[in-house]
Task: structure prediction
Amino acid sequence: MERLRHFATNVLAMAYREGSVMRHDKAFIAAVAVQPIVMLLLFGGALSNEPANVPWAVLDQSQSAGARRLVEEIGATGYFLAPQRVASYEDGRALLARGAAVALVVIPHDFQRDTFRSRPQIQLLLDGADPLTAARIGGTIGQVARKFDPDLRSVAARSADRPAVANGSAGLQTRPRFWFNPTLRDRNFFLAALGGMLLTNLCFSVSSIGLVGERESGTYEATLALPTSPLEIVLGKLLPYVGVCYVVLVIAIVGAGTLFGVWPKGSWLAIGVLTLPFVFASLSVGVLISTLVHTSAQAVFLTVFVILPSVVLSGVMFPYQLMPHGVRAIGAILPLRWYQIGLRSLVLRGGDFGDVWVPLVALCLQFTVLMALVRWRMKPRLG
Amino acid sequence: MKVRRLRTLMVREVRATLRDPFTVISLIAVPLVALLAFSSILATNVEHMRLGVHDASRSALSRRLLSDVAASGAFDPSPYATREALEAALVAGEISAALVLPPDLQDALAQRAGAAPPEVQVLYDGAETVLAGNADAFLRSILAASGARISVRELSSRATRLGELRSPAARAGVDVVTQALFNPQLLGRPFMVAGTFGFVLSFVTVLITAVSIVNERLSGTFDQLQLTPATTVEILLGKLLPLGAVFSLDVLLMVVVAGLVLGVWPAGSVLFFLLVATVYVSMSLSLGLIFSATSATAAEAVQKTVLFSVPLVQLSGFAFPIRNMPMPVQWLAELLPATHFIRVARAIYLRGAGPFELWSELLFLGAFGAALIALAVRTLERRT
Result:
């Protein structure tokens, strides 16, 4: 009991010292305030996978009313710029090769004739150099074409006696519905996990750079001379940052809500609880980094290159479900993987504690393992 | 400027660089890790995705439909007895897509003449936008193909019965024959590999250059060198040229690893690509020089570079296409050299483009490079 109280007072004393140092660090405060705003604007307003302003070209060999209507209908989906007319197949391919068009729609000579005899066909050439856009655009044009009714007269006839066949020949009508995000906006996907990105950046860097800085300036040795153990020093030093993390998280959530209307649908309490083991685990990663390097420049360097794979492989920006199995397994080691799973469920799907117990347990486990590693690496060493 | 002095300085720099294990590791490990990590993150397809199925129809038709879905390899259907169980699984994130087959599926198709086509409901977890988008495209085409096969069979049996040769319904719709040029399977890998060159050369190299120069200043060796007959320009060239050579070798290493490990070779000329990359390296060096000149400590130089480079890389179209951004952001992105280099790298890697197709981009890169080098030289002149 006595030892526990001793431990607690030591940690709190360290925390008080770190807090008062932090309060005077203007650069740190500026970074904490600016980063959430930059990331909010970047992910809320600028970055997106949704195709927009897509340049495309049309080779209309049929020159018929039906062909013109098809082109109009494709353009009306809203993804495209005005179509560029090309006179020959070669011209169209040259546009694709230069990257000046993503798609080339070829409407053959007998398009109009085929609408009376059989099913008309068009050809679609896509620029595979931009695979995600090409796939989306291919899907969109395919969808428009499937629904397209080339025979204008039959529309009137059909709407009179058979109202519902418009979606016709596929034989099955599919009605897709996107839950939790009906317009399938990338913004919601990013903003839901924005807190995870910000806290990863913050936790990794403050703990690694802070500890190395202390070693560099010699204050770590000075503190070691006090009746405190290395573990107490590290814990006390990191405690104030837990508070900072919650402040950043609130900025991120409120910012996403007020600026872009993405408010958490689930339990705020669960978000708060889930964040705690994540912050501790991420801070421990930073501590581990600090034990591997000698100078602050190296610390920043290494931190950046740990943050990068974390962000990329965790699934915050790209769905981890689509990655190959080995890569997916590597991503599962990262705290951010589990935090973003939990966060998305709480923010977008309106989940509660029952929906996030797996990430919660995973994060606690990761924290325990990391703490053991830190204790092993943090033997008091000088020089 | 004397060639002999410059050579001595360069030999010194190469030795110093190779002796520092941290720099050597970051020169080799960081590009390779970036290459391997980034290459696998973008996918336009889905594979073995769990698909919740609530089959209220329980008919021969629904089983045929489900076996078609399973046969594609994109989805693994797993049955749910009630619609509530299906929806709960979607909320919990157990499944990202769900298929609901209505009880009257078979009937709706059997009494086809003029009636509404049977409707299948598909639910997606919109929280995972890319996943839902990819799955939607795949599932739609599978269902359309399968539905068409089924209905053709039903219709042809009916047609022979009724003596009706062509159903009016079969006339709606246009077939699309799609062909993706340059990357027929729409793989994400070559796209990301080509972009990773832009990432490494706009970020890692700038960082290493800045740190290396600041460290030289801090440790006092820069002042020592200035006591020798060597001029400032010689000292800096003696630093930058070896670094540039090392970075160019790094590019070569990445090209080889991407080719051998990931199977992605440039469609265009490797030599041309290396040439363009070398030009771009000179821009990274100038940028590193500018950052180092304006920073007091190495940590400050690193922080400055990181703060500058992260949004730069995000806006350069490395992961998200520039044309999807709002207009003002697009203008900003067009001003970044990384944007143009990544565009050139992708054009060479995927479309096999040569200097003639890319002249405008190359012109911009060249002009920007000249401006950066001039700026770097001026920064130096002010300092010395």
